[in-house]
Amino acid sequence: MSGSGVKRGRPPAFDRTTALTAAIRLFWEHGYEATSIGELTRVMGIKPGSLYAAFGDKKSLFEEVVHAYGRSPAGAFVGAALDEEPTARGAFRRILREAAAVYPDPSHPAGCLTISAATNVTVQDAGVAAFLRDLRNANLAAFETRLKSAQQHGELPAAADPRALAAYFAAVIQGMSQRARDGATAAELTGTAELALAAWPRAQD
Question: Does residue 157 lie within any of the structural domains?
Fold first, then answer.
């Protein structure tokens, strides 16, 4: 028995949640293509071998990062509004106003990770762009579903086009993300949100 009292054995495992949080921020700030394995291991506090053992390759890590981001307050507010608001107009009002506050928040990189992280990828990484595009299209489909339901319940006039309206709000939200990355303030983005809400179809007199 050693008199030093020091226990020998394997070093403590890294904190997966903490490592993912660091990776989220790096991918969010620099995008998929510009983020290297070296930078990832540095901010995550692990060696390359540990990264590959725990997460697989860079693409697999990125996909886990995106799913973790989607569960965070910065990534979950769209789904929460669609689920929680009793009216479609209330849901989109909340989404747009929260986007105006979340996207330029200085506590994290600007904009939305799923909108901006794969704007420039090589042919070899086209699957990453497709992965994010599928997530954005899923949001678009959720918008359309909510708007069709609103129309069926009389909240939208019969002449309204739920698909076009969903595409419009998706385009506004994506544009707000980019404006935030370009330095737009919460005040500017709130103005954009209010203008977008003014496009909500009204019943004809």
Answer: yes
pLDDT at 88 over 70: yes
Same domain? For 23 and 59 the reply is: yes
- Is there a domain that residue 4 lies in? no
Please tell me whether residues 157 and 106 are part of one structural domain.
yes
User: With pLDDT > 70 as the criterion, what percentage of the chain qualifies?
Assistant: 92
**What is the domain count for the chain?**
2
Question: What is each CA distance from 106 to 84, 93, 197, in whole angstroms?
Answer: 27, 22, 25
Residue with tokens 């299209």: 137
Written as six digits, the tokens of 136 are: 């954005």
Q: Which residues 6+ apart lie within 8 Å of 19 measured at CB? A: 44, 45, 46, 54
> CB under 8 Å to 77, separation ≥6 — which residues?
94, 95, 98, 99, 102
What is the value of pTM for the model shown? 0.88
Give me the helix-helix angle, 88-102 and 162-181, nearest 10°: 10
